[in-house]
Amino acid sequence: MAQQHSAGFLKIVEDAKSRVRELTVDQVKAKVDRGEHFMLVDVREDNEWAKDHVTGAIHLGKGIIERDAEKSLPDKATEIVLYCGGGFRSALAADNLQKMGYTNVFSMDGGIRDWREKGYRLTKENT
Q: What span, in angstroms and rounded, lies between the C-alpha atoms of 126 and 3?
C-alpha cells in the first residue's frame, strides 16, 4: 500500500533531497555484497525496526538520531547510509546529520520497501 504524504511533508523532503546524496537500493546492496565498510542506519520507528530490517543495520530512529548520533557514530567522516520506509525520513535525517558536521552521509532512495520488493535479505534479530 502506497503511503500518502502531505504537501507540507513532501516540500521539506524535496528541500532536504536538494542537499543530500542518495544511493539506490541496488547500489547499497552491491556495497554490502562487496564487504565495504560503512554504517547502515535504519531511521524508522521502533515497531518498524522490530518487524524487519536490513541485516547488519543499526537502529537510530528519526526521532532520536540527532540526539544520539555523536555517541553511536562518533567519527563524522565515516560513510553512513541511512534508510527508512521509502527514502523520505532518511533524507531528512541525512540533511540534519550533514548540518551537524557529518561529511559522508547518504540516503537510500526507495528505502526498505524497495529492498523488500527485490527480495534482498532482511532480519528480525537486533544487530
A: 26
Contacts of 57 (CB under 8 A, 6+ apart): 40, 41, 42, 83, 127
Instruction: Convert the pLDDT of each residue in 4-34 to its tens digit.
Output: 889 999 999 999 999 999 999 999 999 999 9
Distance (Å, whole) CA 90 – CA 62: 8
In terms of Cα–Cα distance, which of 107, 119, 118 is closest to 41? 107
Residue 95 identity (one-letter amino acid) = D
